Amino acid sequence: xxxxxxxxxxxxxxxxxxxxxxxxxxxxxxxxxxxxxxxxxxxxxxxxxxxxxxxxxxxxxxxxxxxxxxxxxxxxxxxxxxxxxxxxxxxxxxxxxxxxxxxxxxxxxxxxxxxxxxxxxxxxxxxxxxxxxxxxxxxxxxxxxxxxxxxxxxxxxxxxxxxxxxxxxxxxxxxxxxxxxxxxxxxxxxxxxxxxxxxxxxxxxxxxxxxxxxxxxxxxxxxxxxxxxxxxxxxxxxxxxxxxxxxxxxxxxxxxxxxxxxxxxxxxxxxxxxxxxxxxxxxxxxxxxxxxxxxxxxxxxxxxxxxxxxxxxxxxxxxxx
Length: 321
Hints:
By secondary structure, the protein is α+β, with helices and mostly antiparallel strands. It is built from 13 helices and seven strands. It folds into two domains: 2-189, Metal Transport, Frataxin, Chain A (2-Layer Sandwich), CATH 3.30.920; 203-311, no CATH class. The protein has helices spanning 2-16, 25-41, 102-109, 111-128, 130-133, 148-156, 170-189, 196-203, 208-222, 227-234, 245-248, 290-297, 305-311; strands at 50-54, 65-69, 81-88, 93-100, 160-164, 261-264, 285-288.
């Protein structure tokens, strides 16, 4: 079970890290077995998440972790925001945390200023999903390390829960994880950390609900786990006007760089706030050229492909010779 695997990680890590890193059976247990247990734990929950566990890259990490990433936001612990279990092996404590990518912030602002930025953003996250954050602990966490990354994790912690690895209440552990994953998805649905005025400018509307749904739909369209799969399943021709970049534009690059957009056509505009927004590939998507994509977003029903085609008054010309 997941809570037992995390307990083992917290209780044994200090001893195991005195051994060689390369070929460590304990390291393999964390990276492989613990990650698989986490995937099993969320298998029947309505989320499409990546799971990764780490004890370091090449050398033992000061703080080992197990994280859940939504590909709409990030697939690594270096950027975006995510759910993570962080371990203080000196005190045998485990911290469930809504946290942020430290490396990207350090790269942009430097370490000292970056930690201030992480703290401010952590407060913003608490306020944006206050109905969830009030269910957790808001105090700072202590990871027992003065190393650069752990200090970033401590600064980037928004809210969460502390567990004593020697006595974890399984029922509370399970409730906490489900609530935290709900908070994560809710924060994504609200636009993540993007300021409202920036989202409204991109969406071209001042209606906040319409803006949030538009931004979420665009994130789905651009997600690294969505675009390649849709293009592979639906083909490389605009479903609106019939533009074929290979024929009409002499495009010769790789498929994923083709000048066509993936349009998320179905659920988002009709979903109520907080409602599940899982999508099906390829059913919920269209492949459109940028012009058709802009046009369909201006229509009353952004899923009506026939109406889009009716509005198109030309056929792309094919040069014969």
